[in-house]
Design goal:
Elements lengths: L2 H8 L3 H17 L10 H12 L5 E7 L5 H18 L2 E6 L4 H12 L2 E2 H12 L3 H14 L6 H20 L2 E2 L11 H9 L8 H17 L11 E6 L4 H7 L20 H4 L9 E6 L5 H12 L3 E5 L4 H4 L7 E6 H15 L10 H36 L3
Parallel strand pairs: 1-2, 1-6, 2-5, 3-4, 6-7, 7-8
Helix pairs in contact: 1-16, 2-16, 3-15, 4-5, 4-15, 6-8, 6-10, 7-8, 8-9, 15-16
């Protein structure tokens, strides 16, 4: 390497390094760089186990993470829930972390049902309106009547109802957001939308909206899943591993109600469950303590309950000693999530869409950033050895 280049690298301002890393992360996001993924054995075995289990198998989904690790772990939670839903398994959600129920709700809304709020956000973003604006207008007409609205507010109300009309046609909408009782007419709504000055929706824009909503519908199971029959959210209980020690022998000693306060004896799918030993599989998504290690030590190992895990990248090496028994599979970090999505895309072609696979999306920036780091390491070593050789030649 020429001496000028060595001198340049030796005295390079570290801020250029920071800039390079920022570009390495931002550019793949902007240009949606996607790299092909293939499931490794540790991830493929999880997919295979879920796939081979008979329909109606009981699966415990323990979500032990919070918003801080959600970008890394949510793609795993979404992926395994999607797969279990497709196979028709019975899903039992619970959490040992206080904010775990929120992570469970996010997953249920993403995979099992379409939230009315999600549809509202989709439509609002399309025309540049804030979702709260649409809700405020809807509440006004519910409280004061249609006559109280200005012309602009009537157009906004039409926009709100259009979103629910489109979603209703596709099925699966959880219709909790419309408060007003105004008759919904498709032609009137579409005409009203196109009258919004400066925010005219073209046919292509309406088609884009429909495609986005169709993706949400396809993201659900092919069958309708009913709460209490196909899935249940048991929520959070304090106590860390103490919770596991109790429910592994007596679930109802701690869980007398579900997350919403319904007695679990009144819920069809929990009525006959006495303990976690009744589960056919435990899938734990873990960001730390309490998490996979505790589920292995106090449930899987002593009571021979099969368990697999998805965890943060930094936590994965700590779990390797438990592989292959009692921990038969492990998804580590965003890479593990992307690999599971790759397996799911092969098995279920309808999920072969990058927009549905957040793990695959997030591997792009991570891969480019890692390559940039490797490049910097190589250049740093070349500079170091070249500089040392020069100093030796000068007798210093």
């Amino acid at each position: 390497m020429p001496n000028k280049a060595i001198h340049f690298l030796e005295h390079l301002d570290r801020r250029w390094v920071f800039l390079l890393m920022a570009v390495a992360v931002i550019m793949p996001i902007i240009f949606q760089v996607i790299f092909p993924e293939q499931a490794t054995d540790l991830v493929q075995v999880i997919y295979d186990r879920i796939e081979e289990m008979p329909k109606g198998s009981k699966i415990l989904l323990a979500f032990d993470y919070d918003p801080g690790s959600e970008p890394e772990l949510q793609p795993m939670a979404t992926g395994v829930t999607r797969h279990c839903s497709e196979k028709g398994h019975k899903l039992y959600f619970l959490a040992l972390w206080p904010v775990g129920p929120a992570m469970i709700e996010n997953t249920i809304n993403e995979v099992i049902k379409i939230s009315a709020t999600k549809v509202l956000e989709e439509v609002a973003a399309l025309v540049g309106e804030h979702p709260k604006t649409l809700k405020d207008v809807d509440k006004k007409v519910a409280d004061e009547g249609l006559a109280s609205l200005s012309d602009d507010e009537k157009k906004i109300l039409n926009l709100l109802h259009l979103s629910f009309l489109v979603a209703k046609e596709m099925g699966g909408l959880d219709p909790e957001a419309i408060e007003s009782d105004v008759e919904i007419d498709a032609s009137r709504i579409e005409a009203g939308i196109r009258e919004i000055e400066g925010k005219i929706l073209s046919d292509q824009a309406l088609m884009d909206l429909k495609i986005n909503l169709e993706l949400k519908v396809e993201n659900r199971s092919h069958r309708e899943m009913k709460y209490g029959v196909d899935y249940v959210n048991l929520g959070f209980k304090p106590g860390n591993e103490g919770v596991i020690k109790v429910i592994i022998t007596d679930l109802k000693k701690l869980y007398t109600t579900d997350h919403y306060g319904t007695n679990i004896d009144d819920i069809e799918m929990t009525r006959g469950i006495s303990s976690i030993q009744d589960m056919d599989l435990i899938l734990n998504i873990s960001a730390g303590y309490p998490g996979t290690k505790e589920w292995v030590q106090y449930a899987a190992e002593p009571y021979n309950v099969p368990i697999a895990s998805g965890c943060t990248g930094v936590q994965a090496p700590l779990l390797y000693p438990y592989i292959p028994e009692p921990l038969f599979g492990l998804m580590g970090g965003v890479k593990g999530a992307a690999e599971f999505e790759a397996a799911l895309r092969i098995g279920y072609p309808k999920f072969d869409d990058d927009r549905l696979n957040k793990g695959v999306q997030r591997m792009g920036p991570q891969m480019v950033a890692h390559l940039a780091i490797l490049l910097l390491i190589v250049l740093g070593n070349i500079t170091y050895f070249a500089t040392r050789k020069t100093k030796r030649g000068q007798g210093t």
